[in-house]
Amino acid sequence: MVDHEFGGQHTELKLSIVESYLKAFTTALRSRFQELWYIDAFAGTGSRTTRTVSRGSELLEERMVEIIDVRRGSARIAIDVRPQFDRLVFIEKNKAYCEELRRLKVDHPDRNISVVEEDANLSIQREIAWTGWRHSRGVLFLDPYGMEVEWATLKAVAETQAIDVWFLFPLAGLYRQATRSFADIDASKRTALTRMFGSEDWAHELYTGKVTSDLFGETFEIRRSADVAGLERYVQTRLESIFPKVLKPLALPIDRKPQRFSLFLCISNPEPKAIGLATRIGNHILKAGISS
């Protein structure tokens, strides 16, 4: 078994929130649509390894003991959801991780599971490019390792008008790329930001010029005007430009400042009833997560 160790306490909360939504989603829509899809764009191995060290004793001699715990990742959680999803698509670039996902598929021969070893952006855009969404609905879980998710992918998902998206946005990655001083943004950072936001408008929407004076005269510098909260608001504004409804995100980890992630729920179906249902379910689950 391949070790896939990642995350912390906020990871358990994130997975708990997604699991609760998946259960509510299939319960509410099972009888209304022909097919229900779950797409996991960065599926990992399907499991999450955690390690803790505690004190133990052997023959009256105290020693440190490492405890290894293997917990369900998002892929295994989706398989276990009842009522079931009709189709599950697990996407992962890492070859070793894909081997674990294929073993997971073999263990569930009665389920329609696809394991796709490919870049998530290419795969998502291909997988959702079909004409059956009128009679189907889906949930996409975006939990990238960094800033891999492209704007073109988000736009393609929104255009289906059938897929709800849980997006763990890497806010820490954003404020590393969008440095305080505009002069520190090199070509690589600029490309990453433009790919993620879909245009170069971020440059004038997040940055402003300012003249400062000192003993040597005046200096003009362009600096980021948005703090961490402002960056999160900008991300939400961008998502709201293509999704009919985006819920106020959950800041993760809850007890750490500055926050590292923002957990968004983006709803692509523009029908008021669909927005109302997803909003009620999503807000209830997010509120319960905050208070847990």
List the helices and strands and how they pair.
Elements lengths: L8 H21 L5 E6 L6 E12 L2 E12 L1 H7 L6 E5 L3 H12 L5 E5 L3 H8 L8 E7 L8 H10 L2 E7 L1 H7 L9 H11 L4 H5 E8 L2 E8 L3 H13 L4 E2 L3 E3 L8 E7 L4 H20 L1
Parallel strand pairs: 1-4, 1-6, 4-5, 6-7
Antiparallel strand pairs: 2-3, 7-12, 8-9, 10-12, 11-12
Helix pairs in contact: 1-10, 4-5
Number of domains: 1
Amino-to-carboxy terminus distance = 32 Å
Question: SS-based structural class?
Answer: alpha/beta
The average pLDDT is: 89
| CATH superfamily heading | Vaccinia Virus protein VP39
Structure explained in plain terms:
It is a single chain. By secondary structure, this protein is an alpha/beta fold. The protein has one domain: 3-Layer(aba) Sandwich (Rossmann fold), CATH 3.40.50. Helix content is 39%, strand content 28%. The chain has ten helices and twelve strands. It has helices spanning 9-29, 74-80, 95-106, 120-127, 151-160, 171-177, 187-197, 202-206, 228-240, 272-291; strands at 35-40, 47-58, 61-72, 87-91, 112-116, 136-142, 163-169, 207-214, 217-224, 245-246, 250-252, 261-267. The strands form three sheets. Strands 1, 4, 5, 6, 7, 10, 11 and 12 form an eight-stranded mixed beta sheet that branches. β2 and β3 form a beta hairpin. α4 runs parallel beside α5. The longest helix is centred in the first third of the chain and has 21 residues, at 9-29. The chain is elongated. 36% of the residues are buried. Mean pLDDT is 89; it is low at 3-7 and 65-70.
